[in-house]
Amino acid sequence: MRTGLKNNIAYSFFDPEIGVLKDMVALITPDHVGMFRESYGGILKTVFRLTDCDRSAIHTLLQFYDPGLRCFVFPDYLLGPLMEDYVSILGIQIRDQIPFHVTRAEPDVLGISRALYLSPEMVKEGLKEKGKLPGFHL
């Protein structure tokens, strides 16, 4: 037995026949709709809105669900912060511009310094080339 690894839990999904369910909903009289909503909430709306993509997304998420912790665990993935997270971490402002765009030319030192709110001298001394790839390498 492999120690230290998480045990896998198998989930099986009941895939109801939605057409039959829609026929049953049509049988509910208008005066009983309120009682049904009080008893079961908005479950019918949820069932009718589930598409095949939603079902596959739920199936994918359940593969990462840890019942003991009652949360989703992504052990093999490095989830990095978003651009907005960097704004709060570094305390800089994102200008009103598209942060990523396709360009054929390499950005110059002045453009990089304007985007990072740094002086051109600081950018020039930090910009290094590693493996024919210019950048700020760690």
Automatic annotation (TrEMBL):
A Pfam family assignment: DUF7745
Domain of life assignment: Eukaryota
InterPro entries: DUF7745
Domain DUF7745: 21-137
PANTHER family named in the record: AMINOTRANSFERASE-LIKE PLANT MOBILE DOMAIN-CONTAINING PROTEIN (PTHR48201:SF12), PROTEIN, PUTATIVE-RELATED (PTHR48201)
Name recorded for this polypeptide: DUF7745 domain-containing protein
Organism: Pisum sativum (Garden pea)
Lineage: Eukaryota, Viridiplantae, Streptophyta, Embryophyta, Tracheophyta
